[in-house]
Amino acid sequence: MRKARLLNRTAGPGPRIGWAARVREAGAPLAVRPYRLHFTARVLSWTGSAVSPIALAFAVLHIGGGAGALGLVLAVSVAPQILLLLVGGVVADRLPRARVMVWSNVVCALAEGLAALLLWSGTARVWHLVLMSGICGAASAFFTPAAGGIVKEVVPPEARHAANALLKIAQNLVKVGGPAIGGVLVAASGSAWAIGWDAATFAASALLFARIGLRSGPVKVKTGFLADLRDGWTDFRSRRWLWVMVVQGALVVPVWLVGYQLLGPVYGARFLGGAGLWGLVVSGFTGGLVAGAAVALMWRPRLVGRVVCAGTGSLALPLAAMAATAPVPVLVAATAAAGTGLAVSMTVWSGLVQERIPADRLSRALSYSTLGQLVPVPFGYLLAGPISRAVGIRATLAGGALVIVLAAVVPLLIRQVRALAVAGQPAHESVLAGTAAVSARAPR
């Protein structure tokens, strides 16, 4: 035994993988045709979605609506997701996921295309935009679980981490430049053209999703819809590590959104002198998102539970910095660190869920997970105003930071969460070989 320990100690680490090999491994999923189509379709769709909020806001104002009308349009987009998300999870587990994604995009393309036509003709009313928003929200309830599960189908296990990281990098890059482009497009051409662009990206994405062409076996529906819903809940509840982390998200997501998105601009106006410096803070966060996704692309941590909790805890940094009225450079650094931690944790968490949950249950698990984090958000927005008026904005932000820290630390007291790990990382040759094999099997 003593000799074996000595040999292990003197043997040293395994062969180091060079940066060139890591870069080839990171880009390997793009060699797989179904993933390449999926990636391109998602990027197209995100470019439209980045423009849509600004276009929708100015469209409502242009036709005579006010803040109340805009609030109604935004609320109606969220409500169908809450109501239909579990239904979408069952449907995505029953039917080919690519088909569900195609029809979700087609529905949104038709709804937004009709809204754009009404705006162009000058006949649009607020209720038209409310209806469009509700239809797209309902379609999103079906698209989200399907999109979350399809990566498992289009790339081999060895390449899923890189596949998730590439999607996250692209999404975050669009987030950085999309709103600015949207503002220019609305200013130059009007909100109708911007909403029309979003409709066009939905249509183009639907065409790309339709070409993925995975060879799916026959759909087996042995139980009723409610039975599938119950089975999904039973499976979700049986995975302690999963529901514990969803509870963590249910606490952190509304607190973060209230602290950063709702109270953050108020803090910027009151303590930073206006939108200029607050915009710099927001840029720090979006830059951190891009940096974090790039880090996740090149780094594959094994102990995912600890990394996810650390990334979650990093969201407390900007709230604590605002509560302490830290200098602007410190606040920008805090938001950049939060963005980096969030992007890394989301990427590695996606890979773990895809690895541990069987494909025929994955969309239902994702729908329960998303719903658990989405439902508390409206209550957080409703409580934020009274609480901040009662105790002050800085005290509210300090309390939010404390809640996030506790939510990040407490799950680590559970051994199952601390031990959450992905399977052993393969050498880069295995990743490249695996993606080549999937690409060869995919229909052309």
Automatic annotation (TrEMBL):
Membrane topology field: Multi-pass membrane protein
Pfam family, one: MFS_3
Subcellular location field: Cell membrane
KW Cell membrane (keyword) present: yes
The entry's keywords: Cell membrane, Membrane, Transmembrane, Transmembrane helix, Transport
Gene3D superfamilies: MFS general substrate transporter like domains
Protein name listed in UniProt: MFS transporter
Species the sequence originates in: Streptomyces davaonensis (strain DSM 101723 / JCM 4913 / KCC S-0913 / 768)
GO cellular component assignments: plasma membrane
Transmembrane segments: 43-63, 69-88, 100-120, 126-151, 241-263, 275-296, 303-324, 330-353, 365-384, 390-414
